[in-house]
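Risk register update: the risk that structure generation would not scale has been downgraded. Supporting records follow, first protein first.
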Amino acid sequence: MNTLDNSRIPRHIAIIMDGNGRWAKSRGLERSMGHQEGAQTVRDITEAASKLGVKYLTLYTFSTENWNRPSHEVAALMALIIESLEEELFMANNVRLQIIGNRSRLPEFVCEALSRCEQNTAANTGMTMVLALSYSSRWEQTETMRRIARRVKGGDLRPEDITEDVISQELSTSFMPDPDLLIRTGGEQRLSNYLLWQSAYTELYFCDTFWPDFRSEEFYRAIVDYQGRERRFGKTSEQLTQE
């Protein structure tokens, strides 16, 4: 943590929290135990990110593909999500909760708990924690295309006026900037249908650590790695020095 440059903390960090099941399997435990331990990591990273001054922390919590998992595991995950919505954590760290994803597929009791937590934390002015629930980038982009098509059909928008900005404004993430840094734990090196449009110029960080073991020290290491990179956005190094 002492090597961090506090003037270059990523404004928005997205995380693919991978490895809960493999963490549990390596210890001879049920997969649900890995998810429970992973929930503790969420609390640890939330506190660490908030203290560093990160403005947005987006966590890939449950993808649309995860609905294909065994029903008992899905049910356990839904229950764990509710148990993990500790308003004390949000209030103590001045954190606001927001949700992105297809809520229509979530159980009613989950939707109610999420909405209640969103409302109760809406006035918090510190970091915004965004949970991607029943989310995938292809789902999001399909819904965005439908909304834009309806605007064109209704005469509110001409096809030639559809720009990158128009598309970005129709995405479920329109309220926040694109991620500066995307972290994936668990050893896999892919985006798995997560924030594909938004991550066009995001810095990617992959590590072998399973999510339940990914605590603040590893989180700081990822940010230090990010701070050592040159973000050119298509420009040359010489152009950046002249700006």
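Supporting record for the second protein:
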Amino acid sequence: KTVSLQLEISISNNEQMAIIIKKVSSKKELKTFIRFNYELYKGNPYSVPDLYDDMLNTFSSKKNAAFEFCEAEYFLAYKDNKVVGRVAAIINNRANQTWDKKEVRFGWIDFIDDEEVSSALLKAVEDWGKQKGMDTITGPLGFTDMDAEGMLIEGFDQLGTMATIYNYPYYPQHMEKLGFEKDADWVEFKLYVPDQLPEKFVRISEIILQKYKLKIKKLTRKEIKEKHYGQKIFDLINEAYAPLYGFSKMTQGQIDQYVNTYLPLLDLRMVSIVETEDGELVAAGISMASLSKALQKAKGRILPFGWFYLLKALFIKRPKVLDLLLVGVKPEYQSKGVNALLFYDLVPTFKKMGFVYGESNPELEENKKVQAQWSAFESVQHKRRRAFKKAIL
């Protein structure tokens, strides 16, 4: 096959119904790539659209720090001159080196319920990966762990979150028919805020504080800026998440990007950190009011009125749902119950702020340490998502 600047693959037994795959090569095509998801899920009550400007930055090699160690191409599928699918092909060289693999990732995949379309999209990723020396295709994954990952396989009737993927039930059916197998599963929980913490939970938390000489700290904007707590938190995440599936250590460029982009949006009452007597950070928990409904109302746009819905949800009229964005504990403290201290601090705040339940971020199904921390709360596992893989022949 000849690969040109604009890759085209026709896959069909019927010439009039050929699927054409085109490599995105202009800003206009990138806009089409981003907007296809909004159009495919228009009116869907469970899908939460990404912000268009965030997606532009994510896919830009000049603005996304992950391109320090990643390379990518984006593909659109056309049928009868109409866009019917999209996919990103990504090679995270840092992750491949860390895990001694030769994987090409597929991410941001969307397609109509047509196996020729999904097959053609994934074949484009395989072919590109094969040219780059890869031997396995896996996904859906983003550039790094900080991007949404995992195809929804349970919980199609549940509202999505801003940090996760929503997809139609036919997506995983296509993957299985195309010969993809399970690589990893994540589970998600709906966690109800109790009226008060169980006495046993409180007692254990206080014992842990005394035994390991720890202290719970609430941050101020001034401290974040002057004492570099943003840097400390992401250094902790790098250490805590190192053993997790597909994780690649964040670079300084990525950390700077996340600190500057996301920390200013946080309500610091919903951030908790645990330190030693000497000020060493050993645990951090970051949560925020759910932006799912606000993002739906914004339709993926900050302008003209999207900013209003987002600010209203964050600071004016909060929803009853919160997102548990990040929980990180230093490895040597992970078996000492230190993660309980975060919720010992945060749960009374959640109750006071009027939250009814929280959405956990996806947790690897085998990560029993993380799931054990929910045992003190009423919880429901309501979603499951999967990364698929297949050998490239």
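The CA atoms of residues 3 and 131 lie 10 Å apart. On this basis the risk owner (M.S.) recommends closing the item.
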